[in-house]
TrEMBL record:
The keyword Oxidoreductase applies. Residues 101-278 form the D-isomer specific 2-hydroxyacid dehydrogenase NAD-binding domain. Its EC number is 1.1.1.79, 1.1.1.81. GO terms for cellular component: cytosol. This is Glyoxylate/hydroxypyruvate reductase B. It catalyses: (R)-glycerate + NAD(+) = 3-hydroxypyruvate + NADH + H(+); (R)-glycerate + NADP(+) = 3-hydroxypyruvate + NADPH + H(+); glycolate + NADP(+) = glyoxylate + NADPH + H(+). GO terms for molecular function: glyoxylate reductase (NADPH) activity; hydroxypyruvate reductase (NADH) activity; hydroxypyruvate reductase (NADPH) activity; NAD binding.
Length: 310
């Protein structure tokens, strides 16, 4: 990745890049970052209080993500460090990914593709490998912000799905435009044919999709997670699928990431797993980087960030 070097150099910023094919440990980050004024975090490195406290010059943290569960915002606020993220620019790409997963699971696409590789073309004709229709079914959204809304629009337009959602507040636009209805979690679980997560991961909702919750879903339901792997308990999800408490699952996020190649989810019917590609189109990643650099430069110059979290 180019990291927008030209723009950064033009802005007179002295840049050091630490590029790894994994997230760095907090200790490694402290060792690297002690002298920096600004941090552009491309990836999911955990930015905790110890790191921030160990970097006395740090003025701004610019995230290359809309999610910010990997940053201690309270510590940043206390230490006077500005934090920006990249909302808006990745809304469509992420909603597209959720929509892709819903359809792929509903048609058992990844499993049947694997069957071709096993020289088992005829698996597509076996009744247990048939798909299910989405038309007229109910989409339940857990956390209806802009990405959830964009997905709901797609599901309404293409499959005329009913939209229900569980959220702290009402989303009036979604209610007016799509007839969406806000419900308690119990109703979301009981009524939805597809449940898709579009919330921010917090300590309160970490692991919320567990055995007990999967058992409250319809046996014909599809579980979709493009938000964060931390929302679901992976072992409970595997068991829920094996015991047929739910019908299928589509994941763009796993816990941990990367997922190991021997994970049973990768070969199960009605399951589609992607390697966290929600925002990974050329156009979206370019827009994210532009915005993240805007935020970095603004923060280094003591100006308000374009998209400031704190
Ligand atoms: C990743 C994401 O940030 O925006 C988010 O919250 O999870 C993704 O867009 C991206 O893959 C990291 O570069």
């Amino acid at each position: 990745m180019d990291f927008g070097m030209e723009r950064l150099h033009k802005a007179g910023i002295d840049v050091t890049v630490w590029e790894e094919d994994r997230n760095l440990t907090p200790e490694e980050l402290v060792a690297h970052c002690q002298k920096v004024d600004g941090l552009l975090n491309v990836g999911m490195n955990q930015l905790n209080r110890e790191l921030m406290a160990a970097c006395p010059n740090l003025k701004v943290i610019s995230l290359h993500s809309v999610g910010y569960d990997h940053v201690d915002l309270e510590a940043a606020k206390e230490l006077g460090i500005k934090v920006g993220n990249t909302p808006g620019v990745l809304t469509n790409a992420t909603a597209d990914t959720a929509f892709l997963l819903i359809q792929s699971v509903a048609r058992n696409a990844f499993y049947l593709n694997h069957q071709i590789l096993e020289d088992n073309w005829k698996a597509s004709q076996e009744i247990e490998n048939f798909g299910i229709e989405l038309r007229g079914k109910t989409l339940g959204i857990f956390g209806l912000g802009s990405i959830g809304f964009a997905l709901a629009k797609r599901c309404k337009a293409v499959f005329d799905m009913e939209i229900i959602y569980h959220n702290r507040g009402n989303n009036e636009e979604a209610e007016k435009l799509l007839g969406a209805r806000r419900v308690e979690l119990e109703e979301l679980l009981a009524e939805s044919d597809v449940i898709s997560i579009h919330a921010n991961l917090t300590t309160e909702n970490t692991g919320i999709f567990n055995d007990e919750v999967f058992q409250q879903m319809k046996q014909s339901a599809i579980f979709i997670n493009t938000a964060r792997g931390g929302f679901h308990n992976e072992l409970d999800l595997i068991l829920a699928l094996q015991k047929k408490h739910i019908w299928g699952a589509g994941l763009d996020v796993t816990n941990p990431e990367p997922m190991h190649a021997d994970n049973p989810l990768l070969t199960m019917p009605h399951v589609c797993v992607l390697p966290h590609i929600g925002s990974a189109t050329l156009e979206t990643r370019t827009a994210m980087l532009d915005l993240a650099i805007d935020n970095l430069i603004a923060g280094l110059n003591g100006k308000p960030l374009k998209t400031e979290l704190i």
